[in-house]
Write a structure and sequence with these properties.
- With about 350 residues, the protein is an alpha/beta fold.
- Helices cover about 20% and strands about 30% of the residues.
- It has 2 domains: about 1-215, Spore Coat Polysaccharide Biosynthesis Protein SpsA, Chain A, CATH 3.90.550; about 230-325, 3 Solenoid (UDP N-Acetylglucosamine Acyltransferase, domain 1), CATH 2.160.10.
- The chain is built from 9 helices and 30 strands.
- The protein has a 7-stranded mixed sheet with strand order 5-4-1-6-11-8-12, sandwiched between helices.
- Strand 9 and strand 10 form a beta hairpin.
- It is elongated and about 70 Å long.
- The relative contact order is 0.12.
- Bound molecules: 1-O-phosphono-alpha-D-glucopyranose.
- 1-O-phosphono-alpha-D-glucopyranose binds near residues 161 and 162.
- 1-O-phosphono-alpha-D-glucopyranose binds near residues 151, 162 and 216.
Length: about 350
């Protein structure tokens, strides 16, 4: 069994965060999203892992996965998930494989999908009941068998969304070879799976246990951060001075918390500095981030982001790498903003 993680996407719904970096390297609860995919595969016994990257995402993904035993496959053009699988044909050979979308998070891992696959079926699709299935692939089941699959239907036939893990026999590669691009011009994995069904092959759905998150939009990132922080094991390795830490808090090595209040669950990354500040529940600070004389909760500050002397508490916010929010002294009393394309600011 091999594993194929897709990490070539543009992450357009997460702009501006994804203007400079691919989505799977954004940190939730202190770690790049793609780490959780690799860990889940390894934990399920899948040790030969390929990662599909694009010319734009390759460098960052490789940096984020440094030290992990993975191989890289280059998808030159973003032509859809099925296209990414076709590009990885050389890596996959004639082995069955787990296809894992690099922006998906599964609380309880992926073992149940592999177990179902061992019953001798052609494909297993992870499914999850959602309130609004229109933004996902949607499955129609008869018993355990999937009889129909639709990509982002306007009028969903069920509430069973396709979560981003699939297990396939190499048969799917043959179907992909004959695939035509969809209306949005992509080779859809959903169409490939429908192709398996149409050939009379057995495709089964297995519902996800525990929570599942597709980190497509900013609020999904914050929610994923919250869910992962809920499982945090407290550990203080950095320096804590004149501060109150309540609940589950991680202070990573080299981090400094001085004269501050931290209410967990919260993650304070390597070399981060928190001074005269309040860090509230469900907050993650990336390596080298700084929160000085300010308050923040239910937020993500990425590497080297800065929050300094800001009077009002920051909430439900994501600061990208090196982003700065500071108060301004002197006259005129005005906001001064230098915002990249598609940035968002909500002033209270
Ligand atoms: C993709 C798949 C979709 C699936 C979703 C899960 O969509 O095409 O079928 O439900 O991932 O994350 P995307 O998020 O790439 O638009």
């Amino acid at each position: 069994m091999k594993g194929l993680i897709l990490a070539a996407g543009r992450g357009t719904r997460l702009r501006p965060l994804t203007h400079t970096r691919p989505k799977p390297v954004i940190r939730v609860a202190g770690r790049p999203i793609i780490h959780y995919a690799v860990e889940n595969l390894l934990e399920a016994g899948v040790e030969e892992i390929g990662v599909v990257v694009s010319p734009e995402t390759g460098k960052d993904i490789q940096e984020a996965l440094a030290g992990y035993p993975v191989r890289y496959v280059l998808q030159e053009e973003p032509q859809g998930l099925a296209h990414a699988v076709a590009v990885a044909r050389g890596f996959l050979g004639d082995s069955p494989f787990v296809l894992y979308l690099g922006d998906n998070l599964f609380q309880k891992g992926i073992r149940p999908f592999l177990e179902a696959f061992r019953q001798g079926v052609s494909a297993v699709i992870a499914l999850v009941r959602v309130e609004d299935p229109r933004q996902f692939g949607v499955a129609v089941l008869e018993g355990k068998r999937i009889v129909r699959l639709l990509e982002k239907p306007k009028d969903p036939p069920s509430d069973l969304a396709v979560a981003g893990v699939y297990v396939f026999t190499p048969e799917v590669l043959e179907v992909i070879q004959d695939l035509k691009p969809s209306a949005r011009g992509e080779y859809e994995i959903t169409d490939a799976i429908q192709g398996l069904i149409d050939r009379g092959l057995e495709v089964v759905g297995v519902e996800v246990e525990g929570w599942w998150k597709d980190t497509g939009r900013p609020r999904d990132l914050l929610d994923a951060n919250r869910l992962l922080l809920e499982e945090l094991l407290p550990k203080v390795e950095g320096e804590v001075e004149g501060s109150a830490l309540t609940g589950r808090v991680v202070v990573a090595p080299g981090a400094r918390v001085v004269g501050s209040t931290v209410i967990g669950p919260a993650f304070i990354g390597e070399g981060a500095v928190v001074e005269g500040a309040y860090i509230g529940p469900f907050t993650s600070l990336g390596p080298g981030a700084r929160v000085m004389r300010s308050e923040v909760e239910y937020s993500i500050l990425e590497d080297y982001a800065v929050l300094e002397d800001v009077a009002l508490r920051l909430q439900e916010s994501i600061l990208g790498v090196g982003a700065k929010v500071q108060s301004r002294h002197g006259l005129p009393r005005a906001h001064r903003l230098i915002l990249g394309d598609l940035s968002q600011v909500e002033l209270a």
